[in-house]
Amino acid sequence: MSQAASVPSNNQPYADLPPIITQLFEAKARKGLSFEKLAQAIGRDEIWVAAAFYGQAKLSPEEIEALARILDIPVVSIQNELGPHWWPNRGLGPVPPTDPVVYRLYESVLVYGHAIKSVIHEKFGDGIMSMIDCKVNVTKKPDSKGDRVVLTFDGKFLPYAKW
Residues 61-100: pLDDT tens digits? Predict the structure, then answer.
């Protein structure tokens, strides 16, 4: 399934990302690939691969090679912009977010954040859920009232240190 693809690289969130990111998205669209298919090809999770496409995760040299191969982009093109010299600048975009989907995720933390925090403290003690050691999954759950989005954050608990 080949599609014409153009990413408006002067728009958010692409404007603040390395130019190769636009090429990755365009190649993904041209080949009709999902993040799930790319993830299978490079041996990572689909959310992690999507994060890498938004400059939020660091690709290893092997992952760069696999991505270049599946997207038909020269390895050197990706290495030149996302290689060993480049590091992610995590936390993309304005606050509050302007994209409706990202805003709803932000809103969910605003509305339920303190409740979730309280339950975490009751069950685990004084600490935080790691976003460094965290797996995120998105699944689709059929429902008679309309399909449901199920988000799972599977993060390691990190207790606060005392000194």
Answer: 999 999 999 999 999 999 999 999 999 988 877 888 888 9
Radius of gyration of the chain (CA): 18
Q: Which residues does 161 contact at the CB level (< 8 Å), separation at least 6?
A: none
Task: Indicate the Cα dihedral angle 152, 129, 39, 11, nearest 10°.
Answer: 90
* Amino acid of residue 154: D
Q: Please say whether the beta carbons of 111 and 117 come within 8 A.
A: no
Q: What residues are annotated to the active site?
A: 104, 107, 130
Beta carbons of 130 and 157 less than 8 angstroms apart: yes
pLDDT in tens, 11-33: 767 777 889 999 999 999 999 99
Cα 40 to Cα 48, 97, 98, 119, 143, distances in angstroms: 11, 30, 31, 35, 28
| Beta strand pairing call for 148-159 and 127-141 | antiparallel
Q: What is the pTM of this model?
A: 0.81
